[in-house]
Specification:
The structure is a homodimer of 286-residue chains. The first copy, chain A, is 72% helix and 1% strand. Chain A is an all-alpha fold and 286 residues long. Chain A has one domain: Farnesyl Diphosphate Synthase (Orthogonal Bundle). In chain A, strand 1 and strand 2 form a beta hairpin. In chain A, helix 3 packs across helix 9 and helix 8 packs antiparallel against helix 9. Chain A is globular, with a radius of gyration of 18 Å. In chain A, 55% of the residues are buried.
């Protein structure tokens, strides 16, 4: 699995680096590229490619969508890190965008990445491009990622019930892990029942991923994570372990990973990679 | 002309007010609606409808695009007004978004409006929806509006040459007045030469519009404008009058309006409304 993941990752990395952004002012382009090309697992971009390949689609024509979801993810991190939001100075071991370029430029760089994601998708002549873009827009939108982020910000410091915490994680994390899977399947021309199976996979993977992330913040290795740990807890962040305890959180992550893997049954052997990818998420906290 | 403009404006206003934003957290929805429904001329939305009707298209199916361009415009104003950008407290006579909802929520409200614009366009089943969305994305993007805004911010306080100022206004203003015209024509199924004519119209209208706006900041009536005047000059903002003088600026606005009107020749009598709309822009400073 690792080989294939690295291969997808390299494809995404190269495509991101090669985005022309023609006509963008140098400073804007630099600030956008600073965050876009600062590493990361490229999980969302890889999911587009893996889902597309699983359903027999063409990887090259799916690449703009892999880039788009990474741009949407990068924009959300830049705006999240701003002083008016999480006020983070460090991301993946590097100073955050506003520390390097100033707040005004960081806001514009985020806006630029979000808009460019849509521009890149809209430039595609793939016959299913429009529907794939629709999935991305909904996932990034006010009932998707932005819903989760808003609740995360407005409820910080409170102790919301499990249902609310779950709802936040659906928006904040699961939406932008689901859309790349469904978009990849749509681009491959997969049938509706398979797209639906992919949606379930992405959803459970996303919830598990957020729980694991919360667990890592509590017990991970700071050197490996490239950020300050224990910060969530110190700042009264809403996390699943804070809500149900560490042991239950670990069990819940396992359950969601099993559900994610099971959802892939309709794909049979072709789903081997995405199944293994789901289980590898758990190994980060085992 | 006024009657027709009011009719378009009311259609846009009602459609914006009726946007469901289902699933958005109440606070996010409220902050988005606060800026989106705070008045304004709805010029961009009206341009979509007028261009669509001029080419014989269906107004109802163009409405989502009229809403989208108004959402993109509203997002750009919210982010522009932030302390890290223009630091404005007043917009159309009302406190700006971050004054009411705080900086974090204002950033999210802007992000929400931008993303929702794409979500609304992507939900359209109009056969030319994808191409119309493509026009909007490019206009809002890093070689369109965001290019102008970046240069505006980074060059503030300097005295750039005419070419640079013109380039800033192309991005900052003309791009988002051109896209609604071309999108409206695309949705009406207009032929390529007519779309190109509309592009020229929108471009010159946009440049003239920005010059008139700069002139109004210098000599307009504060009560009518709903904002502090003379602010551009005091803050070293880059304006066309500051670059070429008031008299030349007035002449240039007139020239661009004439070019805009001339560009509509291929539409014959059907262009009466958009021609009159262009000339009415000038009357604001005469």
């Amino acid at each position: 699995m690792e080989n294939k993941l690295n291969c997808y990752k390299q494809m995404v990395e190269r495509a991101l680096d090669a985005l022309p952004m023609t006509g963008a002012p140098d400073m804007l382009k630099e600030a956008m590229r600073y965050s876009l090309l600062s590493g990361g697992k490229r999980l969302r971009g890889c999911l587009v490619l893996a889902a597309c390949e699983m359903a027999g689609g063409d990887l090259q024509s799916a690449l703009p969508f892999a880039c788009a979801v990474e741009m949407i993810h990068a924009y959300s991190l830049i705006h999240d890190d701003l002083p008016a939001m999480d006020n983070d100075c460090l991301r993946r071991g590097k100073p955050t965008n506003h520390i390097v370029y100033g707040e005004g430029m960081a806001i514009l760089a985020g806006d630029g990445l979000l808009t460019h994601a849509f521009e890149v998708m809209a430039a595609s002549d793939h016959p299913h491009a429009f529907r794939a873009l629709r999935e991305m827009a909904a996932a990034a939108g006010v009932r998707g990622m932005l819903s989760g982020q808003t609740l995360d910000v407005t409820l910080e410091g409170t102790s919301p019930d499990r249902e609310t915490v779950h709802h936040i994680h659906e928006g904040k994390t699961a939406a932008l892990l689901t859309a790349p899977v469904t978009a990849g399947l749509i681009l491959a021309g997969a049938e509706e029942n398979l797209i639906q199976a992919g949606r379930e996979y992405g959803y459970h993977l996303g919830i598990a991923f957020q729980i694991v992330d919360d667990l890592l913040d509590l017990e991970g290795d700071p050197a490996l994570m490239g950020k300050t740990l224990g910060k969530d807890q110190a700042e009264g962040k809403i996390t699943w372990p804070a809500c149900v305890g560490m042991d239950q959180a670990r069990k819940d992550a396992e359950m969601h990973i099993r559900l994610a893997a099971d959802a892939l049954d309709p794909f049979g052997k072709e789903a081997e990679f995405l199944r293994a990818l789901a289980f590898s998420t758990l190994h980060r906290v085992q």
